[in-house]
């Protein structure tokens, strides 16, 4: 009798546990279904005009994310610096005023100076007559686990997830607003007031050739040129063409190698379901490939289009002039490495890749 009673009690306990387990499983399924059906909207800010390649990349990114998530994830974009100035975008993201930013390495350098690495002159191999030489070299560095991927990884400890390190353009060169003021030798730049996108590296580089750099927001550039506030600027060609800036000459010396990272705060990233996290990471890498292909296509005839449509003359330097510029600006590497010791390993990696790809 006692044995029968014991077996009955055990059976009843098992039934209770099974029922509880079943309820737990039902709750889990319900929660998972709720997450699967829930929609998420991420607010992205950037300071670039809607006509620029930068904005087109964000539109592509949003379309892809919506498609891959079956509409569960959407990116709401605020362009033209309408919510905040460009130098406040990353801090605002970390404070929760925005979820994502499409920034530039020059601006991101105010958040972490390691981004100023991309402002170093002649950072990658280049050929004035073949844009692919530069783009191949730059892409190899960004793809390198000891190069671009490591720089991106450093940001996670600071609360930022870098989804993409895409290039929206080619290298930044010196442009002037006077067709008679063509920059050839380093001496020809002496006394010029040049607009730079921000950060100390570009300004210090210009000082090495006797010019001066000043930071002016993008929307103010046309007026600054027309009123003679600056004589020219360090900027990239596709942006100049899309923005129709009043510039007359360009000299092909690669003084800056911008990257345009797409970032999301780690808090926001970690709050998303795992499958949406994976979609963001995957789409970010695909954006790099999409951007690289688009820059190559548009870059093939951009100098010709600048001349035909806007009268901009492009100066192609000789090998001797290129070496003169390298010699005149090489001191910037030691100067930057002293203020940012972490940059040493990235400079070495860039040099290794340059040698490997010669």
Count of helix runs: 15
Residue fraction in strands: 5-15%
Question: Secondary-structure element sequence?
Answer: HEHEHEHHHEEEHEHEHEEHHHEHHH
Oligomer: single chain
CATH class of the largest domain: Alpha Beta
Alpha carbon gyration radius: 26 Å
Quick rundown:
This protein has 358 residues and is α/β, with parallel strands linked by helices. It contains 15 helices and 11 strands.
Task: Provide keyphrases for this structure.
six-stranded mixed beta sheet, D-Maltodextrin-Binding Protein, domain 2, 358 residues, five-stranded mixed beta sheet, globular, 2 domains, alpha/beta
Secondary-structure topology with pairs:
Layout: H1 2-37, E1 40-45, H2 53-68, E2 73-78, H3 89-94, E3 100-102, H4 105-108, H5 131-143, H6 148-154, E4 160-164, E5 172-176, E6 193-196, H7 200-207, E7 212-215, H8 221-226, E8 232-235, H9 237-243, E9 249-256, E10 262-265, H10 266-271, H11 274-299, H12 302-310, E11 313-315, H13 319-329, H14 331-339, H15 343-356
């Amino acid at each position: 009798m006692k044995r029968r009673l014991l077996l009955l009690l055990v059976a009843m306990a098992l039934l209770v546990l099974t029922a509880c387990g079943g309820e737990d499983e039902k709750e889990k399924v319900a929660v998972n279904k709720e997450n699967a059906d829930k929609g998420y909207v991420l607010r992205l800010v950037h300071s670039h005009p809607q006509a620029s390649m930068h904005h087109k990349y964000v539109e592509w990114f949003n379309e892809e994310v919506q498609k891959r998530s079956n509409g569960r994830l959407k990116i709401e974009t605020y362009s033209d610096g309408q919510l905040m100035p460009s130098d406040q975008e990353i801090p605002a993201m970390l404070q929760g005023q925005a979820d994502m930013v499409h920034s530039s390495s020059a601006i991101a350098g105010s958040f972490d100076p390691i981004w100023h690495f991309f402002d170093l002159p002649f950072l990658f191999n280049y050929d004035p007559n073949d844009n692919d030489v530069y783009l191949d070299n730059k892409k190899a560095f960004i793809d390198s686990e000891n190069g671009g991927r490591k720089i991106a990884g450093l940001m996670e400890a600071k609360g930022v997830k870098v989804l993409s390190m895409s290039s929206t353009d080619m290298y930044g060169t010196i442009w002037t607003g006077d067709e008679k003021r063509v920059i050839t030798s380093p001496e020809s730049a002496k006394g010029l007031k040049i607009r730079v996108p921000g950060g100390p590296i570009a300004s210090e580089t210009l000082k090495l050739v006797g010019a001066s750099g000043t930071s002016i927001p993008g929307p103010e550039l046309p007026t600054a040129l027309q009123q003679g506030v600056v004589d020219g600027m360090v900027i990239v060609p596709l942006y100049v063409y899309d923005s129709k800036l009043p510039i007359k000459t360009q000299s092909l010396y690669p003084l800056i190698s911008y990257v345009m990272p797409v970032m999301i705060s780690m808090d926001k990233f970690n709050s998303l379901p795992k499958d949406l996290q994976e979609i963001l990471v995957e789409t970010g890498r695909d954006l790099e490939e999409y951007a690289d292909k688009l820059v190559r296509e548009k870059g093939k005839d951009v100098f010709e289009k600048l001349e035909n449509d806007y009268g901009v003359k492009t100066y192609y330097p000789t090998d001797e002039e290129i070496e003169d510029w390298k010699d005149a600006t090489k001191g910037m590497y030691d100067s930057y490495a002293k203020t940012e010791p972490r940059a040493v390993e990235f400079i070495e990696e860039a040099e290794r890749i340059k040698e490997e790809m010669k």
